Amino acid sequence: MQTLRLEFYSNISYFFSNKNKQKYKKQLISRNSVTSVSFESVVLMAEEKKKEKFDVESASLLVKELRGTFASGKTKSYEWRVSQLKSIVKMMEDNESQITDALSKDLSKPRFESFVAEISMTKTSSKLFLKELKHWMKPEKVKTQITTFPSSAEIVSEPLGVVLVISAWNYPILLSLDPVIGAIAAGNAVVLKPSEIAPASSALLAKLVEEYLDSSAIRVIEGSIPETSALLEQKWDKIFYTGNGRVGRVVMTAAAKHLTPVVLELGGKSPVVVDSNINLKVAVRRIVYGKWACNNGQACIAPDYIITTKAFAPALINALRCVLEEFYGKDPFKSDEISRIVNDNHFARLTKLLDEDYVSDKIVYGGQRDEASLKIAPTILLDVPENSLIMQEEIFGPLLPILTVDNIEESFDLIQSKSKPLAAYLFTTDKKLEKKFVSTISSGGMVVNDTVIHLTAHTLPFGGVGESGIGSYHGKFSFDAFSHKKAVMYRGFGGDASARYPPFTPKKQKLLIALLKGDIIGAILALIGWV
Amino acid sequence: MDERRVDFERELEDLRETFNSGETRSRKWRKTQLKGILMLVKENEKEIFDALYQDLGKHQAEAFRDEVGILLKSTNYALAHLKKWMTPKKIQLPYVAFPTTAEMVSEPLGVVLIFSSWNFPIGLCLEPMIGAIASGNTLVLKTSELAPASSSLLANLIPMYLDNKAIKVIEGGVSIAEQLLEKKWDKIFFTGSPRVGRLVMAAAAKHLTPVILELGGKCPAVVDSLETAMDRKIAVKRILGGKFGCCCGQACIGIDYILVEKKFAPILVDCLKARIKKMFGENPRETNSIARIINKQHFLRLKSLLNEDEVKASIVYGGSIDEDNRFIEPTILLDPPLNADIMNEEIFGPLLPIITLKNIEESTQFINSRPKPLAIYAFTNNEALKENMVSKTSSGCLLFNDTIVQYFVDTIPFGGVGESGFGRYHGKFSFEAFRHEKPVIRRGFMPDIWFRYPPWNSKKMQFLRSGLVYNYFGFVCVMLGLKKS
What we know:
The complex is a heterodimer. Chain A contains 20 helices and 18 strands. Chain A has helices at residues 2-12, 18-34, 39-51, 56-71, 78-94, 96-107, 111-137, 174-185, 199-212, 225-233, 245-257, 280-292, 313-328, 344-355, 389-392, 410-416, 431-440, 476-481, 506-517, 520-527, and strands spanning 140-142, 151-159, 162-166, 189-193, 218-220, 238-242, 262-265, 271-274, 305-309, 363-365, 369-370, 375-376, 379-382, 399-405, 423-427, 445-448, 469-470, 483-491. In chain A, the strands form 4 sheets. A 7-stranded mixed sheet of chain A has the order 10-13-14-9-8-15-16, sandwiched between helices. In chain A, strands 5-4-3-6-7-17 form a 6-stranded mixed sheet, sandwiched between helices. Chain A has a 3-stranded antiparallel sheet with strand order 1-2-18. The longest helix of chain A has 27 residues, at 111-137. Chain A starts with a helix and ends with a helix. Chain B is globular. By secondary structure, chain B is an alpha/beta fold. Chain B has helices at residues 9-21, 27-43, 45-56, 60-86, 123-134, 148-161, 174-182, 194-206, 229-243, 265-280, 284-287, 296-307, 309-313, 363-368, 383-392, 428-433, 458-468, 472-480; strands at residues 89-91, 100-108, 111-115, 138-142, 167-170, 187-191, 211-214, 220-223, 257-261, 315-317, 321-322, 327-328, 331-334, 351-357, 375-379, 397-400, 421-422, 435-443. In chain B, the strands form 4 sheets. Chain B has a 7-stranded mixed sheet with strand order 10-13-14-9-8-15-16, with helices on both faces. Chains A and B meet through helix 7, strand 2, helix 11, helix 12 and helix 17 of A and helix 4, strand 2, helix 8, helix 9 and helix 15 of B.
């Protein structure tokens, strides 16, 4: 009987993670020894276990376990952080084709694009950390003032604890691992919840992370709303969320219960202002690249709409048409160099935007769609009404409305009438216009004469403002996002100013005034009783 | 509690309009307003002292040290550094992006809300305002209704000294606070308790408004067995100053409890007893060297902390209370039970429990088993213990051999972690708290890197492979056709 049970145990063991396995094994053994449990009931138990969902209780157990790991101090050591980052690089290198396959399944993402925007960027990010981490971990010495002389002070970066990363489906690998890299580099234990809307990537991440990284401190939990809600019930030391504003609000509300700080990477309608005095060919290539070559418009910093002058619009449309054909051929459905729409819901959402009255007749290029293959052709619309859905919501797809104004400076009012976008782009050679754009338009990031490239510069913070989000990351900013900057001040027992303590006398007050003003001479005079 | 429903709509529209006019972005405006704060504080020093005396019975030297003086220092610091802070910062870019320039531009967030607290009712109003103004925002200041004299003083003075179209004071209690929280702000800066902090953050979530929460917590002071009499004397002075001399223990960074080795405890208690008398006089109620409890509610809260039998039994000094004058004598308790309220709530008053440990090294463990405090103080000459405190505990700040003075230093950030809040301010960090740092990249149209664009082929892939990992040698090889794709 005993051997039979063990055999049975090994059969079902693949359902459970290592941790559960141990627990289950113990349960099994204890039950065996205490009461004689029939074989059938063990089977039933196993069935129940198999159906068991990831619920609040399992989430709480998970956090408890990771807290234990964090408390042991393991994740704080430089060596641990480096070993995990190295494993991420290796994970990317070993599994290039698996990753591109998953992305192809989820989004038909072209292999090339997957390589550039996901694998390579994740690798670059880890390598940067490997190079700079030691330097970033060093406490930063700061000067103190005469007021507290003699003293020294430093700002120490310490990990926050156990953090949660909830990522998005549009760049399911990069947007999952890039924040995780920051969390690990800063010395935290981390749980990653990839998006269920990109199931192949999510499953792959779950598999690879378990295989390559330290599972006592880094875990992947797959799932949708119930799993996410169970995770959000827990107390985290930071929550990093990439997605939309609606869920962003839910995340922040849940975080408020535990006073957990959040980073929210959201989106918004990122405008492109196109002046008429430009190198049209280059400008249009860069716009087309940012819009359609970045996951077919399904990117948070993709250009959402264009504003240009009435007079320049025909030339611009013409150039867009040429470049689109150069990139994707006459029939974009035949091109395998452009991603598809992620799923039915988003396909329906986008067609709804297109089919609205006074919008559907504004299409000047494209407009074809194929529901079966979830494809929508690159589509350009001219002068859609301001109050249409397509101008109210973030488009997040291959539709590009062009709005026209009489004078290019009018575009600024138009942008300011909407909520603050994640990115704002301007194409011009007019320095005055550029200056005005920089000083009046508020957005997460800003690029003049190009699109989306600010994402690749690790020396710049990436993040939104207002509706486009809270907090920033990339490079050192990722490290900072997952660190607490602890002020540490060292004082000796000497140099005690009695003026600080009661009983207060007029002389002490004078000395205090001088000390707080940083007035050394005043302080000395007060000390020797001259004032 | 006031139940009035106030319409802030017009005030808010005013503020938005002022912000949109761009006026508050100019350095001139910011400078004028900061100078306005200086004038306000300088010209009304006496009125401020009076208001603080009325609200909290603060001695004017304490009021100068903790509020007036600090404000003058902070405002002057901001004025001296404003130009530097506002200047865009040039950023290096990788060569792949050449020729491109990048800089980070600090821009104001918009209309911000500052919720202040009653324990430093002038300082905690104006200190965050310095940051909000320095970074060019318009703002609403909601003063605390629990310090009515200071609140109404600020409500009167601010319109006289500062730009009325951009800076408004709104007085009121819970109902006003709730109504303010319904509005959309570009940042909310809150000083107060974790309970209200949660409500503020939940309200902010509706509008995706970033928040800074300056909360409190039980700040421990670890006292090593100091050897010399001189060290002991100074440590005790600093402990008493940081506990009773700072708004009567009603300070977020005030010492909450002391951790000490069992064998050193009697020595420490004796030193404390002797020094309390010297510092605050035989009868501190009369000498006015110690502030009062803010109101009846807090008085009763503190009274009930003391009322538990086992807690009462642990009193080794003080313990007398005067309900009419809301005065509680400086009180020291030795080893009250750890499950008593006094060891689980933030005390925020003149009660000082001393907890004894067998070994001072156990203090890190003791601290780590509780929520992260805003400050940890440690009095020691032992370098190993110092190192341990830095690396094994977590707190907003960590100060060795002194108390409170971290608040005076402009170069280190002030703010909590975990239960003690998040976000930071003071000095440059105040400026950063209220700005958005916008990266701006500028490019020309030439050269345009052709391998960025589809249709894609293996050669382009090879270029990107080298370019993106900054392998410039490989990059050149591909370009010259020396490397096979």
